[in-house]
# Entry
Amino acid sequence: MPSDRKTELRVGRLTKAHGLKGALKLELFTDTPEQRFVPGAVFRLQVPAESAWHEKTLTLTELRWYNSHPVGFFEGVDDRTAAESLVKAILWVDQDIDELPHEDDAWYDHQLVGLRVERDGVVVGTVARVDHLPAQDLLAVDTASGEVLVPFVSALVPKVDVEAGVVVVTPPQGLFEELADDSDDEDETAVVDPAVSGDDESAADAVPASDDER
# Structure
C-alpha cells in the first residue's frame, strides 16, 4: 500500500487481446499517457483473487497506437493466451500527493475518504472508500445501519466540497431508510441502481478518483 505521502491512481484498464504476440488494447484513465505509459513503467493489477495475476505487477515494454487506439506490450505477456488472462484488469500506480495537480471537479480517493455524506441537509454517513469497477465507480457510504454503495455520477452525487468536508447525495427516496429497516441482517450492503434515477451517465462523468485530468 502507498505510504502516507502517496496515493493510488487508477490509470488504465486492459480491455482486449490484440494480435498473437501478447499485446493488449487499453482504456486510458489519464490525459498524460506519454508520462504514465513509458517503457519500464510498473503497474499494480486489480484482478479477481482467483486470477493467476492476483497481487502481481505488470511492466510496460512499449505503447503503440493503432487507429488512434492505445495498445500495450508487457514483460512476461508473450502470447494471446497470456493476454486474454489479463482482460478487464485495472492498472494502478503510486503518486506523491504533493505532485498531484489541482483541478476543479476532480478528486482522488484520499480526498474523499472520511467526508461526511449529506442528503437533504441531513448527515447520513461518511465516505468509507471508493470502489473502482469496470462499469462505474461507487462511493461506499458507512452509515449507522450498514454500508450503502452510491454510483459516482453527477445525478446521484451532485456536490463534493472537500474544503467543507461534505459530499451531497440524492439517491432514490427510501434507500437509507430501507437499509435501517433491515439493520438486523449482518453485513448488510445496499446498492443504488443509477437506472432508478433515470441517469445514464458513465462513472467517468462523475469525476472518479482516477488520474483523469479534466
